[in-house]
Amino acid sequence: MENEGVGPEWHDVAAREQLDPDFALGVEIQGQNVGLYLLDDQVHALEDICPHAFALLSQGFQENGQIECPLHGARFEIGTGKCLNEIGQHDIRCLPVKVENGRVSIRIPIKVETA
Questions:
Q1: Domains in the chain, please, with CATH?
Q2: 75-77: strand order across its sheet
Q3: Tens digit of each residue's pLDDT (9 = 90 or more) over 10-43
Q4: If you write DSSP's letter for every residue of the chain in order, what string do you get?
Q5: What is the radius of gyration, based on Cα positions, of the chain?
Q6: Which of 10, 28, 88, 106 is 20 to 30 Å from the Cα of 43, by its Cα?
Q7: What global pTM score does this model have?
């Protein structure tokens, strides 16, 4: 059986000045796609793959604290990852974020084998 947690290490992914409140920034860390969002001057990181159609959410439409999938309109809250309509199927994961010295770092999910 597998459980997911977050790894202990922080990954430097972007300069804070690269983030725009109107547009997400998609990054890839160790094969995992992550969307970075600037909402109310706070940086948020979410899984970047839509559970419905495997599109990159960071390429979607961002408004009113929500991101909308560019393919079929699944919507998620940026601050919580909460799925806001049925087509999205389920919530997406928020990842830990820190900003230090103008750099954004995140911790990414890892799979842990359990008995």
A1: 2-113 (2.102.10.10)
A2: 61-63, 66-68, 75-77
A3: 999 999 999 999 999 999 998 899 999 999 999 9
A4: -EEEEE-SS-EEEEEGGG-BTTB-EEEEETTEEEEEEEETTEEEEEE-B-TTT--BGGGSEEETTEEE-TTT--EEETTT--B-SGGG-S---EE-EEEETTEEEE--EEEEE--
A5: 14
A6: 88
A7: 0.88
